[in-house]
């Protein structure tokens, strides 16, 4: 404790010394108005006049973090006019006045009452003034001064991050910059060495070093290998006071990772790989895998594989699986155990990306020998050709040989072969095949005009192993035979203008015709057009062959008349160029038409001369008959409608149910979804006759409930309903039995009360219906039914 007090006293003295220096500096450099003046020489030798300041004060300092028992004396304020008689009162105002800083109003001494922290606030601005103690009249103008908090080394250095992560390539040169770490000190950097930092490395030697002033971490060893050690942990210290004894320090951790470079070539773990492949394997099938190890990672460890030598280079290939970094040996072409039973390959593995800096480490590739043995397998038969094309003439007789397919067993056993046709490709069963020798024959005549090509598939299977089979496509072309005669290419029709002239028409053809033949071109054109021999000298028309598979029809004469003959049928013979040729006779229709002066067609109808304008008498009679029939139908309909409007049931005037219809106007509630008609309770006898009904008499009869009394005026609704029920049960023409349930149901969802009297006698209602007596004669029956409760009780 004594040592601490001595230190604090020394600091106070040091502070007072600073005060005196500041005071002297303030007296020399600040010009303030004062009551007394003196002279001072300027820089250029001139005499400057300044007023003598009436205050004796300066800029004050106070040490932070002072923890002594007494308040710290910051300084003293004194006025020249203060004679010490106590008439002057010193007043302090501004930041912290009265709370942190207090002043003795007589002596002017300023004390700090609280511990100050420069890192929270570096200075305080205060205002001092001297006033008359009795009158509070200012004796001096107010003056502003500053109290600065003097720093001590009470804050250790702190790094921006607790941990750092950095990367540096492996095998980097010594002195390669890795990362810069930075620490900060909250102490005043302008005062002493409290904030002067020095960096040093605590952990991580001898691999790394740090610059003392900048905090830059650098490599310290050459050829650091990632494959040997990838990650390093370094501890860096920052110490203030320039790194001297007694300074405060802080540390941070830096994780440094060596990044990979391509400094290692790929290497096969063995010199020879043994593989095997079945002769039944198809091209593209995997044979085996090889893998060269490369300790590098990422793109530096990528390896590609190639076949560089060997007798199987044409039959095998190798690809690279970049996910597993393996070389996949695949079959490129089929192999045959009977031909060759073993192959040898030389496979090379090489890096994809090579770093020129490390090319001196050697060739970044390696080779290995791959030996592949061919395994024998039971192979399916093989056709001598991959496909077959055969020809057969159409209309050939069944059993005609089309061609032959041939297959053999490639195995040493040379098993016999059996042939068959895939019936999915020969649904019409046009062909059959000899299962032993493979000869294909027809089963029915073929028509080239329906199908010119037929494609089938033939199976060849070993007799002793039906699972071993082969399939080959066979295309069969149907050759054409001249079996179709030519016909008109279209339904031709000619027109000729009637004329009174006896000379032939112009040289223009009436119509130009052509032909069509379903046979092949060899048996089709050229077509020859002519008239039949029996009408070769037709007086009306002639045919001229144009020798281009067309012909023109011409008129031999003029003077055609529709009244004499309006239609001519001209037979024309068409022959094709096949061997032997075929011909057909086609009929051309030629109509005689009316034309204008320019030869344009007007009408080809023969009735155009005899039809008169307007309607015929028969048509008018038919129209009038239709009108009369329609009028009769309308009259009958109106008559029936009038008869249906008459009432079907005549209600009696004294019928109680009439009152129910009249007054129960609100209908059923929301749940009453069936419309009710009181007429269903009426006995239709004598009104519209009996209505036949086929139903069954109910097994159970409704029994009247006891305790009911007839209403006044001898109107007993209960007896009335029971009577009607019995009549309905015994009357086959009455409505359905369940209609009485509809009569008594009005729904439970209606907000308004019910006016029905069907259930009134069975309830113990306390309602008073005497007011019905005042409603007049129209409501007399309701008043008799409900309005006399006392009478009803007496009767009961």
UniProtKB/TrEMBL annotation:
One GO molecular function term of this record is:
calcium ion binding
Q: Some GO term, biological process aspect, for this entry: which one?
A: negative regulation of cell migration
Q: Does the keyword Repeat apply?
A: yes
Per the record, the major location class is membrane
Instruction: Print the keywords alphabetically.
Output: Calcium, Cell adhesion, Cell membrane, Glycoprotein, Membrane, Metal-binding, Repeat, Signal, Transmembrane, Transmembrane helix
**Cellular localization per UniProt:** Cell membrane
Xref: InterPro entries? Cadherin (IPR039808), Cadherin-like_dom (IPR002126), Cadherin-like_sf (IPR015919), Cadherin_CS (IPR020894), Cadherin_Y-type_LIR (IPR000233), Catenin-bd_sf (IPR027397)
Q: Name one GO cellular component term.
A: Schaffer collateral - CA1 synapse
Q: How does the record classify its membrane topology? A: Single-pass type I membrane protein
Cadherin domain span: 79-159, 160-268, 269-383, 384-488, 488-609
Q: Which PANTHER family match?
A: CADHERIN-11 (PTHR24027:SF85), CADHERIN-23 (PTHR24027)
What the protein does? Cadherins are calcium-dependent cell adhesion proteins.
Q: What is this protein called?
A: Cadherin domain-containing protein
């Amino acid at each position: 404790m004594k040592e601490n007090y001595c230190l604090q006293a020394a600091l106070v003295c040091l502070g007072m010394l600073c005060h005196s220096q500041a005071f002297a500096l303030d007296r020399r450099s600040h010009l303030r108005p004062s009551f007394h003046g003196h002279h001072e020489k300027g820089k250029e030798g001139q005499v400057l006049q300044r007023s003598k300041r009436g205050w004796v004060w300066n800029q004050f300092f106070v040490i932070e973090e002072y923890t002594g028992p007494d308040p710290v004396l910051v300084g003293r304020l004194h006025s020249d006019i203060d004679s010490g008689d106590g008439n002057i009162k010193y007043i302090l105002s501004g930041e912290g006045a009265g709370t942190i800083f207090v002043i003795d109003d007589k002596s002017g001494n300023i004390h700090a009452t609280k511990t100050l922290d420069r890192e929270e606030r570096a200075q305080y601005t205060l205002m001092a003034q001297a006033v008359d103690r009795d009158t509070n009249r200012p004796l001096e103008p107010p003056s502003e001064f500053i109290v600065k908090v003097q720093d001590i080394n009470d804050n250790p250095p702190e790094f921006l991050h607790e941990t750092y992560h950095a990367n540096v390539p492996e095998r980097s040169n010594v002195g390669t910059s890795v990362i810069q770490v930075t620490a900060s000190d909250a102490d005043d950097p302008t005062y002493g060495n409290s904030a002067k930092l020095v960096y040093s490395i605590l952990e991580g030697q001898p691999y790394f070093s740090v610059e003392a002033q900048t905090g830059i971490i650098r490599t310290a060893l050459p050829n650091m290998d990632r494959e040997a050690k990838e990650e390093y942990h370094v501890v860096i210290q920052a110490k203030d006071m320039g790194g001297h004894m007694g300074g405060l320090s802080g540390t941070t951790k830096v994780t440094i990772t060596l990044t990979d470079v391509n400094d290692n070539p790929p290497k096969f773990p063995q010199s020879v790989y043994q593989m095997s492949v079945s002769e039944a394997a198809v091209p593209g099938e995997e044979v085996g895998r090889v893998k060269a190890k490369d300790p590098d990672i990422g793109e530096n460890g990528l390896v590609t594989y190639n076949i560089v030598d060997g007798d199987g280079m044409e039959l095998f290939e190798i690809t690279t699986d970049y996910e597993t970094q393996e070389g996949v040996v695949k079959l490129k072409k089929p192999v045959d155990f009977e031909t060759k039973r073993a192959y040898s390959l030389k496979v090379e593995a090489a890096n994809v990306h090579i770093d020129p800096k490390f090319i001196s480490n050697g060739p970044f590739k390696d080779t290995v020998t791959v030996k592949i043995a061919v395994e024998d397998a039971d192979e399916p038969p093989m056709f001598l050709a991959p496909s077959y094309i055969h020809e057969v003439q159409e209309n050939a007789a069944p059993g005609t040989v089309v061609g032959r397919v041939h297959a053999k067993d490639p195995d040493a056993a040379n098993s016999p072969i059996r042939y068959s046709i895939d019936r999915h490709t020969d649904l019409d069963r046009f062909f059959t095949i000899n299962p032993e020798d493979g000869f294909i024959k027809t089963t029915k005549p073929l028509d080239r005009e329906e199908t010119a090509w037929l494609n089938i598939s033939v199976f060849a299977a070993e007799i002793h192993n039906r699972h071993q089979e082969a399939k080959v496509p066979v295309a069969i072309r149907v050759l054409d035979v001249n079996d179709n005669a030519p016909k008109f290419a279209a339904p031709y029709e000619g027109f000729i203008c009637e004329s009174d002239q006896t000379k032939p028409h112009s040289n223009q053809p009436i119509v130009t015709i052509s032909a069509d033949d379903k046979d092949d071109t060899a048996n089709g054109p050229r077509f020859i057009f002519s008239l039949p021999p029996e009408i070769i000298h037709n007086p009306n028309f002639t045919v001229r062959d144009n020798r281009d598979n067309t012909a023109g029809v011409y008129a031999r004469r003029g003077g055609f008349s529709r009244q004499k003959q309006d239609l001519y049928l001209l037979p024309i013979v068409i022959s094709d160029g096949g061997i032997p040729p075929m011909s057909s006779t086609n009929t051309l229709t030629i109509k005689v038409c009316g034309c204008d002066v320019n030869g344009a067609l007007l009408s080809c109808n023969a009735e155009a001369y005899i039809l008169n304008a307007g309607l015929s008498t028969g048509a008018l009679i038919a129209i009038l008959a239709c009108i009369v029939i329609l009028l009769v139908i309308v009259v009958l309909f109106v008559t029936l409608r009038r008869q249906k409007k008459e009432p079907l049931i005549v209600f009696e005037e004294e019928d109680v149910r009439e009152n129910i219809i009249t007054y129960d106007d609100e209908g059923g509630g929301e749940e009453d979804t069936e419309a009710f008609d009181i007429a269903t309770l009426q006995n239709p006898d004598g009104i519209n006759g009996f209505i036949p009904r086929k139903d069954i008499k109910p097994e159970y009869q409704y029994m009247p409930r006891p305790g009911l009394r007839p209403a006044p005026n001898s109107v007993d609704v209960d007896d009335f309903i029971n009577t009607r029920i019995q009549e309905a049960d015994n009357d086959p023409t009455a409505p359905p039995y369940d209609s009485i349930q509809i009569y008594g149901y009005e729904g439970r969802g209606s907000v308004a009360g019910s006016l029905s009297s069907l259930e009134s006698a069975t309830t113990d209602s306390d309602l008073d219906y005497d007011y019905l007596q005042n409603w007049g004669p129209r409501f007399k029956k309701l008043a008799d039914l409900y309005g006399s409760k006392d009478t009803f009780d007496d009767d009961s």
